[in-house]
Design brief:
This protein has a domain at 35-107. It is 36% helix and 14% strand. The chain has 5 helices and 2 strands; from the N terminus they run ααβαααβ. It starts with 7 loop residues before the first helix and ends in a 14-residue tail after the last strand.
Length: 121
């Protein structure tokens, strides 16, 4: 439906679950392009829809979050940054040529107009 593509090397290595190659941490080591990872450390869609943190989606100031919810948000951000560091060090090629920009913003798509970023609402 999204016209997504994958990588033959990744799919061969993950023959038991080739769909796993649709996720960045799985496919990244198989990519040979020079990469610049641009990501928010706190993905608003995942915080709301996977972790069910209704206090933390885009536009919220987190004042409605409990201490436990804030700890979960912090842990999520730590895990996201750690995952990106693993990807950047996953191959000699990536250690030599990959970079990243990881904002501390709660956002879903760092490089596109989303969640009313540019509308002033």
């Amino acid at each position: 439906m999204m016209n997504a593509t994958s990588n033959a090397g990744c799919e061969a290595a993950h023959a038991d679950d080739p769909a796993a190659c649709m996720f960045a941490p799985t496919i990244f080591p198989y990519l040979q392009s020079d990469m610049m990872v641009v990501e928010g450390a706190y993905d608003s869609w995942q915080l709301l829809n996977i972790l069910s943190l209704k206090c933390s989606y885009y536009g919220k100031d987190l004042s409605g979050c409990s201490a436990a919810e804030n700890a979960t948000i912090d842990a999520y951000g730590d895990a996201m940054r750690a995952s990106i560091l693993v990807a950047l060090g996953s191959t000699a090629h990536h250690r030599r040529s990959a970079g990243c920009f990881v904002s501390a913003c709660i956002t879903h798509v760092e490089t596109a107009d989303n969640e009313n970023h540019t509308s002033g609402t």
